[in-house]
Amino acid sequence: RSMRRWAVAMIAGAVVALPLTLPVLPVNDLANGSWEGKINKDLSATVGWRRVVRQLGGVAATLPPAERTRVVVFTGDYGAAGAVDLYGKSYGLPRVVSGHNNYWWWGPPRAADGATVIAVNLSEGYLRSLFTDVQPAGAVDTGFGVWTEERGEPIWVCRGQRRPWVVAWPAAKHYG
Length: 176
Known about the structure:
By secondary structure, the chain is α/β, with parallel strands linked by helices. The chain has two domains: 2-42; 48-172, no CATH class. 39% of the residues lie in helices and 15% in strands. The chain has eight helices and five strands. It has helices spanning 2-21, 27-31, 35-39, 49-61, 65-68, 78-87, 124-130, 165-168, and strands spanning 72-75, 97-98, 117-120, 131-139, 154-161. It has a five-stranded mixed sheet. Helix 6 links the parallel strand 1 (72-75) and strand 2. The radius of gyration is 20 Å and the shape is elongated. The chain starts with a helix and ends in an 8-residue tail after the last helix.
């Protein structure tokens, strides 16, 4: 009898906790300020990932063929980096590089210095310290009206690398 009560309590607790830990709610609930989204901001972190990567792939597709074959995608946060790693191949994108958290440890881009860079969630000032030519190519639209770190951030196309990646890479490291 006590075992049955314990099992019922565990199941009830799991049902209540489910929307706080797994993406089981409709995306629109997160956009409308649901209580679950207020408690766990990470629930919205992956909303629109495929759409963001499609946008980055669209920017890459506008590059001249010679640049497209050597393009580097550089992100300011591990969320966008993870999205590109997960979906990028289907949009013609290479593996991503990022200075955020553990991505920094995987090192600078394997591409040759001088490659064209598509950057997102990095400040214009920072990018201008790395490149002579930094041009806006759009803004991130994650769709659904849900907050994400990338939402509304500019997408940049950068050329004219000022110094080699191995020299610039140590300063790219940031945690948070």
